[in-house]
Amino acid sequence: ATARTLTLANVGPWMNGSQYQVVLTQGSPSNDSKTSRTATLTVSGASPTLATPVLSDLTFGMSLGDGVTLAGGYNPTGTLTFALFGAGDATCSGTPVFTSTVAVSGNGVYVSSTFTPTTVGTYQWTITYSGDANNNTASVVCGTNGQSVTVTQASQSIAFGAAPSVNIGGSGTV
Fold first, then answer.
1. How far apart are CA 100 and CA 113, in angstroms?
2. How far apart are CA 19 and CA 3, in angstroms?
3. Tens of pLDDT along 99-147?
4. Closest by alpha carbon to 149, among 18, 70, 16, 60?
5. In the β-sheet with 19-26, what is the strand arrangement from edge to edge?
6. What is the pTM of this model?
7. Half-sphere exposure of 84 (CA within 13 A, CB side)
8. How far apart are CA 6 and CA 24, in angstroms?
């Protein structure tokens, strides 16, 4: 049987973006006619995914928030930033009306703080995972299906009961 030895020239933690020299030696330990090949190995980080729920519309005066499931990361750390863009900013090109940053400690479900809109209209969420030494960044971009919330004006109605009976001049009820 042919023995194969794998030797790493740069020993240490496997970090995203790091390059390592790999030497593959082929031949038996007692055979002096060994052949070696050297290759460069570049470590790629894990590419986590972000899955979001479909958000529901709401009535003015109610607060809203967002959530995301971070999956496929390799012991992910870092942060998730939730940004809410206001009514009239369908492309998320302006300044967010609200942001919430949450620390990441593993794959799982993360939830933003809540915000109470000050005007009616359609609001858009974006979510950005910062990445870390072992994980690439990930994001939920503006316009992603289910990540807009329409805030509508509360409907108002006035209910009147039956008018009370009134005696006028003591002669009867009107």
1. 6
2. 25
3. 999 999 999 999 999 999 999 999 999 999 999 999 999 999 999 999 9
4. 60
5. 4-8, 19-26, 35-42
6. 0.70
7. 27
8. 5
